[in-house]
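Treating backbone geometry as a discrete language has practical consequences that deserve illustration. The amino acid sequence and the backbone structure tokens for this protein are reproduced below.
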Amino acid sequence: MSNTNILIHILNALIGGLCIAILGLTAHAVALKDELDSILPSSVKKTGMTFLFWPGCGGLVDMLLFILLWSLTPWKQGSVCLSLDSGLQKHADGAKTNKQAAYLNGLLFVASFILGRPLIVLIFTFVEWGRAVKSETSTYSGYLTVETWACAFSKQNGNNFADSLCKELQAARYLLIPVLVLGAMMLTLMLRKRFLVAKGVVQ
């Protein structure tokens, strides 16, 4: 296995691990939010917190799908036999090349989702966080998200559940950044590999 292939698999595993962490943090944050439902203002927007499940679950599915497609991709081309059956062999090699191209396109599609999903969620959550009220004296009015309300409420009242909720949602949101960086690296390597395979430089 080439160094590029090893690096692609390492990046895929790292992204999968980060997505599992995001999923775990978000799931625990929901449990913490449920503990605070009795004092949570009805005006609090929960979209951003719910949206964090998408890169968590989706990223994990993408990691497994990428591994599956990679294992199904026919990387090695058959050798052309100089015999009476060489025409049939060439035809078989051509079919295998077409199959390889189809699977590589599938891998590129998955890699694009690995990059695009956290990008969309990162933009949405940071824009929503930027719009929300963060004042400790305005925890029941204005545009509030679960994260900004929990952070302000924990500072104002010293509530441990709110403090944990604040920190875990922040952690899940910021973990999207390394997922995005690693996803960009992975997609770049896959584009390079697709180009080299098309040129016949690598298999």
Observations:
- The first helix runs from residue 3 to 35.
- The helical segments are 3-35, 47-51, 53-72, 86-131, 146-157, 160-199.
- The two ends are 11 Å apart (CA to CA).
- Confidence is low (pLDDT under 50) at residues 78-84.
